[in-house]
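F.,

This is the one I mentioned.
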């Protein structure tokens, strides 16, 4: 690992209080990066900052509470980052919300709108305000976290899957629009990873037997396991490091081979 890839670089991570977002923050901070951790709740964000500073002593971290579904909150977050670090070299749009697990005809409209607000509108708002900064700089990288639910259907997850498909559409379009301006835009397409969100989803589906349910699901993967957050963080960091400068406007799957094996 190159421990100086992010020296002098400012990286914004939404959904940074736990899971893949926090693991990516740790990776970037350990390689000399300046990190803005964005989260929707003060408690989780504070715990994420505590963990990050414990793992990376001396980390240069700004934390800001923002609901990414609120454009004004996203705009303030970008302004706070610029005030603190002076620039934004990379954005990891990682904030996400799964929503209820119900058939489409039973899906509460207000919940559908909330999933769209966080996952799709939140990604759009962050891209919109950060791209303005990157265009002026003449450089930057945006990584949008989608899902295998963004490349195929997921029963009982209509809102989640629709928004994750939309994120890939935004990524491809922005890649075409901004490549000539020195900005690359890439989507991550993770499969099943062990994160607080995935554990909560498994509990909702299987109740007290969720761990056995998880193990059975993992057994269907060609690698016979779920992904580790450090593996997703390594890919996200690579894409934002400057070492992947010719990767643009595409979606990269990281799922242990499950999609290619089973479709």
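My design for it:
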């Amino acid at each position: 690992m190159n421990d100086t890839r992010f020296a002098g670089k400012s990286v914004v991570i939404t959904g940074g209080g736990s899971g893949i977002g926090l693991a990516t923050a740790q990776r970037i901070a350990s390689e000399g990066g300046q990190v803005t951790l964005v989260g929707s709740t003060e408690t989780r964000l504070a715990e994420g900052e505590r963990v990050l500073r414990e793992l990376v002593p001396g980390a240069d971290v700004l934390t800001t509470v923002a609901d990414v579904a609120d454009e004004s909150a996203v705009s303030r977050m970008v302004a706070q980052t610029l005030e603190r670090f002076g620039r934004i070299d990379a954005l990891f749009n990682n904030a996400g919300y799964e929503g209820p697990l119900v058939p489409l005809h039973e899906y509460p409209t207000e919940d559908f709108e909330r999933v769209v607000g966080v996952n799709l509108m939140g990604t759009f708002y962050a891209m919109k305000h950060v791209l303005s900064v990157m265009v002026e700089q003449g450089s930057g990288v945006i990584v949008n976290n989608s899902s295998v639910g963004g490349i195929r259907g997921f029963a009982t997850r209509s809102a989640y899957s629709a928004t994750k498909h939309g994120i890939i559409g935004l990524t491809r379009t922005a890649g075409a629009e901004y490549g000539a301006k020195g900005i690359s835009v890439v989507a991550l397409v993770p499969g099943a990873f062990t994160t607080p969100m995935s554990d909560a989803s498994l509990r909702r589906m299987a109740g007290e037997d969720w761990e056995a349910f998880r193990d059975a699901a993992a057994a269907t993967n060609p690698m016979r396991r779920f992904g580790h957050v450090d593996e997703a963080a390594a890919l996200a960091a690579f894409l934002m490091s400057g070492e992947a400068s010719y990767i643009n406007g595409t979606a990269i799957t990281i799922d242990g081979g499950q999609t290619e094996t089973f479709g």
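The longest strand covers residues 183-190.

Talk soon.
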